[in-house]
Design goal:
It is a single chain. The chain is of the alpha/beta class and 249 residues long. The chain has one domain: Rossmann fold. Strands 6-7-8-3-9-10 form a six-stranded mixed β-sheet, with helices on both faces. Strands 2-1-4-5 form a four-stranded antiparallel β-sheet. Strand 1 and strand 2 form a beta hairpin. It is globular, with a radius of gyration of 18 Å. The protein starts with a strand and ends in a 12-residue tail after the last helix. The structure holds adenosine-5'-triphosphate. Adenosine-5'-triphosphate binds next to strand 2 and helix 1. Pfam families: ABC_tran. Belongs to the ABC transporter superfamily. It comes from Rhizobium esperanzae. Keywords: Amino-acid transport, ATP-binding, Nucleotide-binding, Transport.
Length: 249
Amino acid sequence: MSNTILSLSHITVRYGQMTALRDASIHVDKGEVVCIIGPNGAGKSTMLAAAAGGAPVVSGNIQFNDKAITGVAPEKIARLGISLVPEGRHVFGSLTVEENLQIAGYIQKDSGQAKQDVERVLTYFPRLRERLKFPAGRLSGGEQQMLAIGRALMTRAKLIMVDEPSLGLAPKIIDQIYQILLDIRRTEGLTLLINEQSSSRILKHADRIYVLRGGVIQLEGRAADLADGEAIREAYFGFQHSDARETQQ
Ligand SMILES: Nc1ncnc2c1ncn2[C@@H]1O[C@H](COP(=O)(O)OP(=O)(O)OP(=O)(O)O)[C@@H](O)[C@H]1O
């Protein structure tokens, strides 16, 4: 058995005439934190959607735990142990934090186990414990992101994919969320695949980085080797752009 938990090999995705991913390959090893960085419209969400069974893949192969999952239905993929936290969080605003977590545990048949898992999630996110009886719609953006990740944890997924967790959040909150994710990784051996538009805060948290632009993987490397940001900037913008500070914000 290989150490790779997820691989997408030579994936092409088309929405009608529009090619969103072109012959793109990525892999994620067990226990890794891998980040896909790229500008708006690069194809990042499409990559996660392809792994979750929700994108029109026209060619290529997707494997999870050495099993082919290309063309497999999203609910079946979820049951195999992949959970996607979509961009924009999508919590149920009128339901309480507790109810949001309980519903996410529907995948488990055993209600005792679901109860234990609510407790397990609250241990990682003490902030959610304080807000347990609040409607999720009244939470701050950071708290909603925590809840969205908490919901993914309820499924006991082996691989959690998070689409732009930093979007609209203050740097302090972003770091806090990453610290919690790394804590969960350490405690549970979880594997994480994360999309981000900006690289600066991610480089210190991720093990490995892919830069995606125009549906094509432009760069792959260990975060430690890319720390100065130069190669990332070049791949991100497609040309030498010494003054391109956008990715550094
Ligand atoms: N359902 C769809 N139908 C048609 N085109 C789509 C669809 N979803 C995405 N696209 C297009 O595919 C391209 C890649 O989109 P995608 O959302 O994967 O990029 P992204 O890197 O995640 O960008 P963002 O940061 O804006 O979410 C974009 O040009 C987008 O407009």
